[in-house]
Amino acid sequence: MEAHFSWTVWGLEAAVTVTRPGAIAEAVRVVRAVVADVDDACSRFRTDSELLRLQPQLAGGAEASPLLALLVQRALQAAVLTGGDVDPTLGRDLDALGYDRDIVSVRLSPDAAASPGPVTARRGPARRPEGWRRVTVTGQTITVPPDIRLDLGATAKAVAADRAAARVHAALGCGVLVALGGDLATAGPAPRGGWQVTVQDLEDDPVQQTTLGSGFAMATSSTQKRRWQHAGAQVHHILDPRFGLPSEPVWRSVTVAAPTCLEANAYSTAGVVRGFAAVDWFRREGIPARFVDGNGRTVHTGGWPAEAADHHAIAGGEVNG
Question: How far apart are CA 144 and CA 92, in angstroms?
């Protein structure tokens, strides 16, 4: 028997499920503490976060806490994994699009009310070198050029899920699944039959029931949820680093299974950024993924089973029907 608890954080649903019901209260406390620590370290929206406090010093190299240094390292790792499709140096671009506060506050601004319709931000020629290659972490010293502002949001959420799951298992010994928005991480023994996960972005999207194996993770990146109006255009939060503008919404969502939530999140985000070309890339690399296009049609890679199957098991980095 499992126990489950959910709440809202960062404008997203957070949830914890444990295999020992009596452990749920302490598990929630551990997860909340991890999430709070990550927010204190790298929030782009809080002037008292460590990242913003260090901002004036970063050009000359600033000594950071172990956690902030780790979060920047993991963000750069995601950039390497994805060939720069996931770039943590897009903070100024997100600010320019109006995403300079938490998403709830952004949507409440007069020009930002989300409404149905295509993303219409205009693109010109690719305009700049890869910003992430200009950021360095040496020990705990972070160096960021003055023209760059870091945004660690996506990878930090994934790292938080990985850390929270690991800490719950280490502290309580039970199996645990932590969900932070579309990022899921597990640790310890799974319940009998594995972790049951419903893969669906919005209610109108196709739904698929999966089983996630012990110690594995899953992430869904969406062009549908974090949307708002800016300068008369519908925009979303996943940017193409070449242009600093929202990626073309070829996919409504991309879901990836991987050994860590960081990897799953990096590849799912890159899948959105790379568009149609992501399918061949994922197939070459054997990345288990589920793409949903604008018409609700699904494409699978890396052995992810067809939608018609009744049961899908994801374990060992593979998807087994």
Answer: 13
Share of the chain above pLDDT 70, in %: 83
Among 131-145, 189-203, 302-316, the least confident range? 302-316
* pLDDT over 60 (residue 95): yes
pLDDT of 105 > 60? The answer is: no
* Secondary structure class of 231 (helix, strand, coil): coil
Where do we find the tokens 């890869």? 130
The alpha carbons of the chain give a radius of gyration, in whole angstroms, of 19
Instruction: Indicate the DSSP class of residue 276.
Output: T
The structure's pTM equals: 0.89
- Within 13 Å and on the Cβ side, how many CA atoms surround 76? 17
Phi then psi for 253, rounded to 5 degrees?
A: -155, 155
Q: Centre a 10 Å sphere on the Cβ of residue 241 and count the other Cβ atoms it contains.
A: 23
Nearest Cα to 151, choosing from 36, 49, 248?
Answer: 49
Tell me the residue type at 122: R
Strands (E), the chain: 3-9, 12-18, 62-63, 136-138, 141-143, 176-180, 183-187, 195-199, 208-212, 217-222, 227-230, 233-236, 239-240, 245-246, 251-258, 289-293, 298-301, 313-315, 318-320
Output the DSSP codes for 110-129.
TT----SS-B-----S--S-
φ/ψ (deg, to 5) at 215: 80, 5
Determine the Cα–Cα distance for residues 75 and 152; give it in Å rounded to an integer: 7
Beta pairing, strands 208-212 & 195-199:
antiparallel
Tokens linked to 266: 């990096």
Environment class of 3 (CB within 10 Å of its CB; exposed 0-12, middle 13-18, buried 19+): middle
